[in-house]
Specification:
Blueprint lengths: L17 E4 L4 E4 L12 H9 L56 H34 L1 E3 L15 E8 L19 E9 L6 E6 L4 E4 L2 E5 L2 E5 L2 E5 L11 H12 L5 E5 L1 H10 L3 E5 L3 E3 L4 E3 L2 E5 L1 H9 L9 H19 L2 H4 L2 H14 E4 L5 H11 L7 E5 L2 E3 L9 E3 L1 H12 L7 H16 L10 E6 L6 H12 L4 E7 L8 E4 L4 H11 L6 E3 L10 E5 L22 E3 L8
Parallel strand pairs: 3-16, 4-11, 6-17, 20-21, 20-24, 22-23
Antiparallel strand pairs: 1-2, 4-5, 5-6, 7-10, 8-9, 11-16, 12-15, 13-14, 17-25, 18-19, 22-24
Length: 582
Amino acid sequence: MDAHSRGRADDIDPADQWVLNPQTGNYELRLDHSAGQSAPSAQSSRTTRRRGSTASRTASPAGSSGRRTAGVPGQRRRRAPGAPDAPGGGGTPPAAGRRKRKPQKSRKKKALMWTSGVTAGMVVALAITAFAYYEHLNSNISTVDIAGAGSGGFKKDQAINILVIGTDKRTGDGNEGYGDKNSAGHADTTILFHVSKDRTNATAMSIPRDLMTDIPDCETKTTEGTKVIPGEQGVRFNTSLGQAGRDPGCTMRTVKEITGLTVDHFMMADFNAVKTLTTAIGGVEVCVAKDVNDKQSKLKLTKGKHIIMGEDALAFVRTRHAFGNESDLDRIKTQQQFLSSMIRKMKSSETLTSPSKMVDLAEAATEALTVDTGIGSINKLQDLGTELAKVNPKNITFTTLPVIDNPAETVKATVVVDEAKAQPLFSMMQNDVSLTEVKKKEKDAKNAQAALLKGARAEASEVRVDVYNGSGKTGAAQKTLDWLQNDEGVFRSTNQSNAPQEIARTTLEFAPNQADQARTLADLMGLPATALKQGTQDAGEMEPMKLTLGGDFKGAGVPITGPAKAPEGVQKVVADKQVCAE
């Protein structure tokens, strides 16, 4: 730092502050008393004394500061304009011990220099703070390596399936009194959140915890390595997590077995998540159709609308005795109404324009959630959040897996899947058919299919096709081949075994000169227009089309096209509308 930054630059020529250090061979800044600086170091003093034959010493006149200026060997000392070239030379010297003042910088220029310095400092400080906060948020996130469950990622041009799991594990401050504090936890509240490929709609399907189902074998990673936990048949769905050492990957596999949809990632939250997230956004508005005083959940509300957060919010989503027939299915409806309101609050300008709420929400979310390693960082969660945020709340529909009472029970305590209603719902989700935009989707699909499938059909016996299994269902290709050859007369079909990878939707790839064959096969299998992939070059006479069965395959001869509307009786809650809990 030179004299200009030490407060007395107007009286000092900076060039006079530099001397040659003979030990280093470098010019060094001399910290001189006249500039309001500390005295030279002992080393500098010794150097000056040793160089007495070459360093000139200028005596200070009375009243001067007594500054000494060391000369530089081989160079002339700088002088002020008008000073004599040598003793006795011409010119009028300035007053002894003083130098001519340099032109003073304008106050405006000094202010600009100061302001830019402060601004640069603030940018650096903010960058450091932001990085530190980023690292802090990253350290908040808990992750689980789910040992191959899920798709391993998501892409911006594909549908996304996220499994949201609410566990009843009693961890966290203040949660010890909720039931069995030593429980390993269950999949108490489970929602499969499906976001369409074009991000125009989403379906959030709740899966009842008391659903009787089969849990497949699943791999889990432990400190001792990877081990396989045996599956079980005919047990409650909620035992797919926590029990027998099962991790969220086991729940993901179970959901895939039930619905046919591959789950990309999971997010798991405990009781504290409800309390901290609702507090971070300043509460969630709920509506009750009657006075509520549930002594078990501690929920106490008067009829009408309320803003609830923290313990009250947890009581609201936990209550089973305040609404409906006090069943878990009615509690699911209450939770869906609550989550719809929470989504509206999170996407509101009140939250998005409040820096403090956004910071609180980031803190609460990263501390409350446990996710798979595939989305276990702030960057990945932000990418996922950006995709989910594209969906308008008016096109987010909450529904519940269609079920009926378990016919094997005299005293009804569990439920089983209502296949007649569930399969069409699964097909709608697999084909991105919105529960709130079914009319538009149906019209678009019909128009597209009419344009693509308009034209001649080949005879079934003329259709050549190779069948690949990308569905993940064992034997799907062979079953389809048997059906095509034995029931439909497509004799020129072959089983090519497994596809290179599993896919979500069935596709039929064909050349332009195979369009008549493709139309015939599409009619037979009930393929939607989106499944047909026409190439640009004609195929050889003996070249077959390529049919790859996807996750939407439900069985040989079962049409793959998703229904235009949900079956009658399927329960729905739209996220942009408030419903009073009854």
